[in-house]
Amino acid sequence: MVYFLAELGMMNYETLNYCPSKIAASAVYAARCTLNKAPFWNDTLQMHTGFSEQELMGCAKMLVNLHLKAPEQNLKGIYKKYSSSEKRSVAVLPPAISLLAATAI
């Protein structure tokens, strides 16, 4: 799931607003939200990435929005790749829509 979200981000100009380490950390956060892995962010993840949950929220929301729109995009290579059983079909899992409605902590 993290790889899928990160690759979606790499194919989108919006990610130019974020440094690569924030995109990577946000992909982890968004993946944990999508897969309902509680807690979504903890002190260990913050220590290793250097980002708080609040700092990741904007980028994570962008990644979830890209996941939401992936089936309808013109460039579907990444979506098709991660829809395969070899990649555990993570692309077809429902995106973390609740994250889109969440306000920064």
From TrEMBL:
<dbReference type="InterPro" id="IPR036915">
    <property type="entry name" value="Cyclin-like_sf"/>
</dbReference>
<dbReference type="InterPro" id="IPR004367">
    <property type="entry name" value="Cyclin_C-dom"/>
</dbReference>
<protein>
    <submittedName>
        <fullName>G2/mitotic-specific cyclin-1</fullName>
    </submittedName>
</protein>
<dbReference type="InterPro" id="IPR013763">
    <property type="entry name" value="Cyclin-like_dom"/>
</dbReference>
<feature type="domain" description="Cyclin-like">
    <location>
        <begin position="1"/>
        <end position="65"/>
    </location>
</feature>
<dbReference type="Pfam" id="PF02984">
    <property type="entry name" value="Cyclin_C"/>
</dbReference>
<feature type="domain" description="Cyclin C-terminal">
    <location>
        <begin position="1"/>
        <end position="96"/>
    </location>
</feature>
